[in-house]
Amino acid sequence: MRTIELSEVTAKIKSMFIDACENIPNNVLEALAKASEQEQSPLGKQVIDKIIENDKLAREKHLPICQDTGVAVVMLTIGSEVVFHGDIYEAVNEGVRQAYTEGYLRKSVVRHPLDRVNTRDNTPAIVHIKMVPGDEFRIDVAPKGGGSENMSLVKMLIPADGVEGIKKLVLDTVFNAGGKPCPPIIVGLGIGGNLEKSAMLAKEALFREIDDSSPDPLARKLEEELLEEINRLGVGPMGFGGTKTCLAVKVNTYPCHIASLPVAINIQCHAARHKSCKL
Amino acid sequence: MIRISSPVDPQQIRQLRAGDTVLISGVIYTGRDAAHKRLCELLKRGERLPVDLNNGIIYYVGPTPAKPGRAIGSAGPTSSYRMDPYAEPLLQQGLKVMIGKGSRSQQFKQLLQQYGAVYLSAIGGAAASISETIKKCEVVTYEDLGAEAIHRLEVEDFYAIVTYDSAGNDLFEQGMEKYKK
């Protein structure tokens, strides 16, 4: 058995959120640079260049890339041989509390969706725990902005809708969202499972690296085709028209009921902030 | 690049066209969902607004807290469509320019024509760069709303793109039509 101190989890969560909000991953910057080269609209290219300039400035001056420092999404992968004493959820929330209050990040969480009073420390986080064999303890974090999350959806398609139905849903969703989710976007697509599983698959898809591709040939084919088709929509950077609406499509799948074809679309803005670490 | 000073000249605002890029200097007020709701409730009750919006500019933003030595934290635009239901009462108070990101309703576009106003976009997510053009920031009212409080900003060369003009032109529609394949 391996013991993990929860104080270490708290400290790690704190530093990871501050780091994520100020430092865009290198592979996201590379994807933006490539998009700038390929963008055919002069205004679109100007917009991408200003985004790149912003991301570099944020890194250099330790400023948040975007004022929407998001809801704190945390995925913990915990090996069955790991032990800890106490409340893991509270350890995570304490890290989030410290990051957002001491790290000059915006508090964007309200205590109740109907009375809408701000909790003033960005808690509670949204925590997902996955159990695996062994003694691994892995933390993945993402500050997730509201503008792109608002453009996301789950739809229960039927098997007859097939790949064409999935594509139409994605293309309609991205087109109707226009500039709202801050394109160029990343699309996380969860296909299969059931209602809640598909949403989780889509979120997990967004936690993948921007430059990877699915090991599953069917999913990979859909990723490639959808990326090309989305970029033909004409939405462009910030919706002003252009050929780079999307930087990457990520498809994650799971077995499902004979009657169902659940599809979840989770949209990620160009500020694709996430960090990972192993304790 | 067109220079605009605020409070704005209504004639200059009417001449702006979708696709123009502008640099704004002067005073702009911030406001998002919660502050808009309160302003409109005041007007409904026949009370005066706590800020003078005549020939004014509202920027839809909820900044991060300022780090020591800086006027404001990161301050990029939020999605504007959520403020559509509150636009008309504020246009009636003389508001001429709204700055945010993303598309808005058809009805909102008609209001711009009716009131000779414009909708500008700042670049979503370019919040650190934008903060460099904000020289001063103070809370005017609704401090309890935190990042959503109404702030008075003094800006210099604040970059924005004319997205809907007062003649009914829409940069989103024009741009998407041009690059759709």
How would you sum up this structure, described in words?
- The complex is a heterodimer of chains A (279) and B (181).
- Chain A has 279 residues and is α/β, with parallel strands linked by helices.
- Chain A has 8 helices and 10 strands.
- In chain A, the strands form 3 sheets. Chain A has a 4-stranded mixed sheet with strand order 4-2-5-10. In chain A, strands 6-9-7-8 form a 4-stranded mixed sheet. Chain A has a two-stranded parallel sheet with strand order 1-3.
- In chain A, helix 2 packs antiparallel against helix 3 and helix 6 runs parallel beside helix 8 (217-231).
- With 181 residues, chain B is an alpha/beta fold.
- Helix content of chain B is 26%, strand content 27%.
- Chain B has 6 helices and 7 strands; from the N terminus they run βαβαβαβαβαββα.
- Chain B is globular, with a radius of gyration of 15 Å.
- Chain B starts with a strand and ends with a helix.
- The chains are: A alpha/beta (279), B alpha/beta (181).
- Chains A and B meet through helix 3 of A and helix 5, strand 7 and helix 6 of B.
Features:
heterodimer; A: 279 residues; alpha/beta; Dihydrodipicolinate Reductase, domain 2; 4-stranded mixed β-sheet; 10 strands; globular; B: 181 residues; fumarase
Summarize the SSE layout with pairings.
The complex is a heterodimer of chains A (279) and B (181).
Chain A: E1 2-3, H1 6-22, H2 26-38, H3 42-61, E2 71-79, E3 82-83, H4 88-102, E4 126-132, E5 137-144, H5 146-149, E6 153-157, H6 162-177, E7 185-193, H7 195-206, H8 217-231, E8 246-256, E9 261-268, E10 275-278
Parallel strand pairs in A: 1-3, 2-4, 7-8
Antiparallel strand pairs in A: 2-5, 5-10, 6-9, 7-9
Chain B: E1 2-6, H1 10-15, E2 21-30, H2 33-44, E3 57-59, H3 87-91, E4 97-100, H4 106-115, E5 118-121, H5 127-131, E6 134-141, E7 150-164, H6 171-179
Parallel strand pairs in B: 1-2, 2-3, 3-4, 4-5
Antiparallel strand pairs in B: 2-7, 5-7, 6-7
